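Collaborator request, handled under Task 6.
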Amino acid sequence: MQKTLVLLKPDALQRNFLGEVISRFERKGLKIIGMKMMKLDDKTLKEHYCQHKGKPFFQDLVDFMKDSPVVAIILQGAEAVKAVRFLCGSTVGREADAGTIRGDFSMSQQYNIVHASDSLENAQKEIQRFFNKSELFHYEKYDQSNVYTAEEMEN
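Structure tokens returned to the collaborator:
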């Protein structure tokens, strides 16, 4: 089963969407194996958003992400990266489909409620950036036999 990282951004916290967003992932059948609230620092944010360094919005993005705590979550499931990205919707909230997290709660590109890893490779890097191995939990989820076939659970 794949693992992926989600950050519930400061706007999710400020707008009281934490529970609603987390419940969407749970209702989909994704398993939470790590979760914590944290304040992000410049070093972490500059590493996390390095692909945007030098762009006009970069410092505003860093400042926004430091404004309030974020909730970092590791989700596990079959094709978790793809499933989470689908649930989140397009990066620009006003362009995201209704029914997605961003489509329902965001109008902005920056204030778009969640960050979700965009590839399995990046998910692995981001999980290591935000979590120690001791913060990941391995446990049996009793409903999994009603979420996945036996074959899907082997992958």
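The cover message to the collaborator said: "The CA atoms of residues 8 and 22 lie 9 Å apart. Residues 18-28 form the longest helix (11 residues). Please let us know whether this matches your experimental observations."
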